[in-house]
Amino acid sequence: MRRLLIQDATVISMDPAVGDLRPGSVLIEDDQIAAVGPRIDTPGAEILDGRSFIVVPGFVNTHMHTWQAGLRSVSSNWTLLEYFRWMHAGLATRFRPPDIHIANLAGALNQINCGTTTLVDWCHNNPTPEHTDAAIAGLEESGIRGAFFHGSPKPDPKPGERHFSEIPHPRAEVERLLRGPFASRNPLLTLGLAILGPHYSTLDVCLHDFRLAREFGLIASMHQGGGPAKTPNGWDVLERENLVADFVNVVHGNDLSDDRLARFVDRGVTFSVTPEGEMAQGHGQPIIGRLRRLGAAPSLGVDLESVVSGDMLTVGRVALSQQRAVDNAAFRAANGTIPDTTTIPAREALAWITVEGARMLGMRDRIGTISPGKQADLVLIRADSLNLWPVHDPVATVVMQANLANIDSVMVAGAWRKQNGKLLFGEIDRVKGELLASGSRILAELGWRPDLQQPARSERVATR
Predict the structure, then answer these.
(1) What is the pLDDT of residue 101?
(2) DSSP structural state of residue 183
(3) 132, 146, 208, 227: which sits with the fewest CB atoms below 10 Å from its CB?
(4) Contact 371, 18 (CB under 8 A)
């Protein structure tokens, strides 16, 4: 048995039964956390001097379209409608299986580099089983804890083809995946369904997809919002059919009514909010404050690296600052003065990217906190960095001041994936080269003008 003892660190466990320890020690045996305490004596264990580190649970990114890693910054100036037109109906159609593989590998490695140990890869550019298998292989090769949410492409239909909203999620493909890549060969990989939901599919397709997910015991995750719904009464029918339950994950949800949101919370529905992208692309205000008023909490995701950074610390900070701004503005409007105190402590934001991510995935028994018996998914933040020193409030330091430069080491299931500031994946230059070649080819095929960061005029006209 391999034993590693991180000793004399600042430990933010996010587990009320464990608390925060300063100094604190974490004992890791193989892939699990064996003990957490102020001081642990374990003869024969490898010792890591933690005096320079803040140790936090691995971050959980609950929504990202990882296949877009090779198109970083391409969509940063687009609204959601432009994104639909130019990404799904344009660039996405040029992806080959190797493009999906290298994007998922590079995207997952970047997540590890930024401190994310669990990634929900919401894969909706997989027109063939070969694309799907390439995406899964990229996650597996990276060493991340990956939840692969199998989706479906969104191209414009060709003459004689059905619109994507009319195509049920493929049962045969789900069965193939459960027999193959997800037949317990890699305990780090799990399967979920990235379905269309009532906002983007017909009622018949919607009912089929919810029942499919329930039958196989899989999370059914769907986008909610972004223009008029394909099936405006879809949620009413799903509620009557008792298909709205704790296996349902709503992404965004900006346009849900207060009454419906309350019913969803009561039924155990989880929510993945992507605050920076939602504000940038026109989804509407993130629903964090509305969830908090119901006694619930969001999980958070990056969504699109073609739009924003893949750094979950940034996501958490943006989410916290945005909701504080909304709350402060409401108080000023009602009272004509500055609020007496903040509405949201920094610890809540840290929970959104750890504890609540674990809850969304149904993995609270495995990840999300530094607790004995859970998986050893840990992030070591260099607390003696100039931008963090001196550390008076460790939680606020992590949430409000830490960034990628401070992520020293990352452990997934007891294995170091980043150490001493460097990824331990041995072929980063090769990955970067293949990612550049992939993204450049896809853009060139559609007449992209990288100097202007927008489609060529002919493409803009052709895709309207």
Answers:
(1) 98
(2) S
(3) 227
(4) yes
Alpha carbons 423 and 419: distance in angstroms, whole number: 6
57: Cα within 13 Å, side-chain hemisphere? 32
Q: Which two tokens stand for residue 369?
A: 């906190």
Query: What was the pLDDT predicted at 26?
Result: 98
The total number of structural domains that make up the chain: 1
- Is 22 a domain residue? no
As a whole number of Å, the end-to-end CA separation of the chain is 60
Residue 425, domain member (yes or no) = no
Closest CA to 288 of 244, 238, 344, 247: 344
What is the per-residue DSSP string for 148-181?
EEE----PPPPTTPPPGGG----HHHHHHHHHTT
Enumerate residue ranges in the chain where pLDDT < 70: 449-464
Of the candidates 252, 337, 309, 314, the residue with the CA atom closest to the CA atom of residue 286: 252
In a domain, 4, yes or no: no
Spatial strand order of the sheet with 59-64 comes to 59-64, 116-123, 145-150, 189-194, 220-224, 248-252, 270-273, 299-300
Q: Which domain holds residue 103?
A: 59-360
Strands 59-64 and 116-123: parallel
For residue 432, the 8-state DSSP code is H
Residue 460 lies in a domain: no
Retrieve residue 245's tokens.
């339950």
Helix (H) or strand (E) holding 415: strand 415-419
